[in-house]
# Entry
Amino acid sequence: MYKIIYDSEVILARNTVLAISVWCLFVFSSSLHADEKKTQPFKIAYAESWAPISIGSARTVTGMLPELMESVIQERMGIPVEHHGFPWARAQQAVKSGEVDAFITTPTNERLEFSRASKNVVFPLRFQPVVRVNSEEESRFKSEIDITTTLKSKRYCDVLGNGWAKEFYRKKNLKYLIVPTLDVCLKHLVQGQTDIIIHAEPVAADFIKELQLGTQVKILPIVMESSPEFPLLVSKKSPFGQAFISDFDETLGEMKNEGLWEKLITSSPLIAK
# Structure
């Protein structure tokens, strides 16, 4: 009888130890999972050749947008940020597939099918026309109306994946040449194969400087009224859902109220005047 009681006590003790071990393992795993979830980076896609806004491939991206996102998401929200540079069409596909969490661009209807937009504007950008020096366009263009209504026969050029350009030319019923990068447009312009480029002024200025075309082409002081204001577009396949977007909007709103957002973007020529 004593042996039976003893064996029962041993079995009970073993079962208790086993139960405690399983519970401790569960708690440890849950804690580890929570820590992993807490430190999960927010991945953002950028155009790899859009200097000075964003420049660099893979995870070597620098520029105005990466710096701004680090200030908002990493420093203020406490979520680590990963920057990923792609050719622009590839960047959009990465967001659509959920490979990365978000990008910052024009919220076209097509993009809103696979992403959710923040309510707060992340980044305003002025678009201005680029023409040949001493050309008819330079002497005649005084306003946006001159560009888009009185000279419909002119030849326009922009880059693949530029959602703003796609919407702009569609609404104006204007045809335009689509090329991979802006340097191709500028070369066409210099050679007389294109008459007008309407693009982000700081990007155009950077390419003009790099290609040493300052004596051949000119950026006109005409800011298009439809110059875009970019929100953050978060992939619908991202684990960072609507709650994250709401927190982002609240944080960005606080930074705007404090004047920090304005300081970040007015220190750069990228802000629309």
Observations:
- The first helix runs from residue 2 to 38.
- The radius of gyration is 27 Å.
